[in-house]
Write a structure and sequence with these properties.
two-stranded antiparallel sheet; 79% helix; single chain; 321 residues; mainly alpha
Length: 321
């Protein structure tokens, strides 16, 4: 239950991304700066945290052991995650992006066969390829169905161009984020804590963000003062607080694909939090009865996820007794 609660807290801070990106886009800010400045701003905060914990040297040694893996999976987990998400904000409202982003719930479940898990048998540890948890997948479909109901009434008012440009990049991001996160967990193999891993991925992805910033300077010019401040807020809330919380939650269930899927399912709460944020700060219309039905489905899906995870843990404890 603890990893699920941490995941919900992460979803709250992740929701700042959708609301503030919508505000920045409405103010004429470029998606290039919304994306690149977030990770550039993240580094100093995370660097101070890791330094205060006395873990920087260990992180640098780990990164030096496997530079290519850090560069590749940090680019996938951070670069291919956030740049497309910010690009989509130029074509779709925040609520639609937040709704589409929930595909990451199913994406995380479908990625299970790409990873090896360790089983401890009488003959010693045995590595086997992960399997797609069918119950988790079915519950994920309930959550996505709820999200779809929440957004259904709005789709008719969005142009076809906005749907495609606001949809496909988010799908890419939805698969890239859990893929990069899980691959980095394999690379670290429990040797680094959440703060170290987030800082390491931010550092390893900096070349991409600097190149994107250089492209932005030549194409759209520099960022405005207000966009810089808003991006700083996103960097602290979503980039530092939410990312560390989410990575901490996934670390707690590392190697258990069912529980990992449950933690990733908590990110469906981003839609609820983003909806509340847009009502408060962007004065969007209050959800209809159809949308509230969707919210109930999301809550139901999360409850069932937690129940299934708890039942499996109980069974294991009884088996070992």
């Amino acid at each position: 239950m603890k990893p699920v609660i941490i995941g919900i807290c992460a979803a709250f801070f992740f929701a700042f991304t959708f609301v503030l990106n919508a505000i920045m886009e409405a103010g004429g800010g470029s998606w290039i700066w919304s994306a690149s400045l977030r990770f550039i701003f993240m580094v100093p905060f995370l660097l101070v945290i890791v330094l205060m914990r006395g873990n920087l040297k260990q992180l640098l040694l780990e990164m030096n052991k496997n530079k290519r893996a850090w560069a590749l999976w940090s680019f996938v987990g951070f670069g291919l995650f956030y740049a497309p998400l910010c690009f989509a904000a130029a074509y779709s409202p925040g609520w639609l992006i937040a709704g589409t982003w929930q595909i990451t719930i199913i994406a995380g479940t479908l990625l299970a066969p790409l990873f090896l898990i360790t089983l401890y048998t009488n003959k010693g540890p045995l590595q086997v390829r992960g399997q797609i948890p069918i119950k988790g997948l079915l519950v994920s479909l309930i959550i996505v169905a709820g999200v779809s109901l929440m957004q259904l009434e709005h789709i008719a008012s969005v142009s076809s161009a906005s749907i495609w440009f606001g949809f496909l990049p988010v799908i890419l991001a939805a698969f890239a984020y859990p893929l990069g996160n899980r691959k980095m967990m394999e690379v670290c193999d429990g040797r680094l804590d959440a703060y170290q891993r987030v800082l390491g991925m931010a550092l390893a992805s900096l070349p991409f963000w600097f190149l994107l910033s250089l492209y932005g300077l030549f194409t759209v010019g520099g960022p405005t003062g207000s966009q810089s401040i808003q991006t700083l807020v996103v960097a602290i809330s979503s980039g530092v607080i939410a990312t560390v919380l989410f990575f901490k939650a996934t670390d707690l269930v590392r190697g258990n694909m069912q529980k990992l899927a449950a933690v990733e399912a908590t990110q469906s709460m981003e839609v609820v939090f983003a909806l509340i944020g847009e009502i408060l700060f962007l004065s969007i219309a209050w959800p209809s009865a159809l949308s509230w039905c969707g919210i109930v489905l999301v809550m139901l899906g999360m409850t069932v996820h937690s129940y299934i995870s708890g039942q499996k843990k109980k069974s294991v404890m009884q088996l070992n007794a």
